[in-house]
Amino acid sequence: MGRILLVLAVVIGLSPGLVWRSLPPPPNRDQVLKALPLPIPDTRRFARIGGENGPVVTGLWQLASPNDDFGSYSALTVLGHRQLLSTSDTGRYLRFAVPGDAGAEVEFGSVFDDRNRFKAARDIESAARDPETGRIWLGLEGRNAIVRTDARFDNALEVRPEAMRHWPRNSGPEAMTRLADGRFLVLSEGLVADGGRASQGLLFPADPVEGGGPVSFSFDPPAGFNPSDIAILPSGKALILVRGVGLLPYPHFTARLLLADPATIGSGTAWEWQPFARLEGPVPRENYEGLAITGGRDGEAVTIWLISDDNGAVLLQRSLLVRLEWHPAADPAAADTQKKRRRNNAPRPLESSESLAAQTAG
């Protein structure tokens, strides 16, 4: 009898029409974000990366949320008032305050109206923002397009620049930033220039959605690395996040920060760069894709923010937020810029240079 009951149980279990199946859980839209602090070295000496004058790791958190829209973050942008905006390759966004702001609001949402649109139309890999108007520009990898929208992701306009049409679909505008003078700098992820040895870059004279032919140049990152994001320092120089994959002793992500001057970009030439820091040691190995810069005003420390893309593989990868502190005095160009700014009493060019978190509790 027991054997017969066992056989019946197996048959029923394999027969979908014979049993009631539990309904899938309802969508989770809880506006909850947890930032779990991770340990970092106690002393600045051991928390420093990039050499004697390199940045110091001052904050490290693992982000988590029950919200279904959480994760896969591929871009990071400064909003002001101690807030950051991260967008994902699934077409979602996360507005959040820097860790340490008790009771700060968190907002998850969808960038596009149609939540079911195909991935190529919502694969956001880069973002830029105008602090004066609040406008946001998004780089879509799957269709090599740039979308301009307002602060609430309404009134979107999309353009597919002719200079980007030949970029591979999976190697589109991975890194994008807006310069203080309104120009836009875009880097492709894949090696599509100089016979496949370098990434292609474009320097648009103004808003790329409004048209205007860009300056085309090449960007040759270290071997095995590809551009992932880019942000502008108070000095006007660009900090470029590049990532790669290592195989030994086991497969893992690697990342570096490079320093380059947009003033040296020339049509048809290679954009020169210099090493800034290796994301290793106190910085956990992860798939870092988002970069934002705050601080650096009047000689204060620059705060460098990094966010990682978990690729939806929550059991294998993590969404990490990293805070680095770097003093502008380590960059002669930054020091000169600060002196001129104080002498001329010039206004600050970018909101992203405002200090949002230099004093944030760890």
Secondary structure layout plus pairing:
Elements: H1 2-13, E1 34-37, H2 44-47, E2 56-64, E3 73-80, E4 83-88, E5 92-97, E6 107-110, E7 124-129, E8 136-140, E9 145-149, E10 157-159, E11 173-178, E12 184-193, E13 198-204, E14 215-219, E15 225-232, E16 238-246, E17 252-260, E18 274-278, E19 288-295, E20 302-308, E21 319-326, H3 332-344
Antiparallel strand pairs: 1-2, 2-21, 3-4, 4-5, 5-6, 7-8, 8-9, 9-10, 11-12, 12-13, 13-14, 15-16, 16-17, 17-18, 19-20, 20-21
Overview of the structural elements:
The chain has one domain (35-353): Neuraminidase (6 Propeller). It contains three helices and 21 strands. A hairpin with a 4-residue loop joins β8 and β9 (145-149). The longest helix is centred in the C-terminal third of the chain and has 13 residues, at 332-344. The protein has a five-stranded antiparallel beta sheet with strand order 1-2-21-20-19. A four-stranded antiparallel beta sheet has the order 3-4-5-6, with no helix packed on it. The protein has a four-stranded antiparallel beta sheet with strand order 7-8-9-10, with no helix packed on it. It has helices at 2-13, 44-47, 332-344, and strands at 34-37, 56-64, 73-80, 83-88, 92-97, 107-110, 124-129, 136-140, 145-149, 157-159, 173-178, 184-193, 198-204, 215-219, 225-232, 238-246, 252-260, 274-278, 288-295, 302-308, 319-326. The chain is mainly beta and 362 residues long. It is 8% helix and 38% strand.
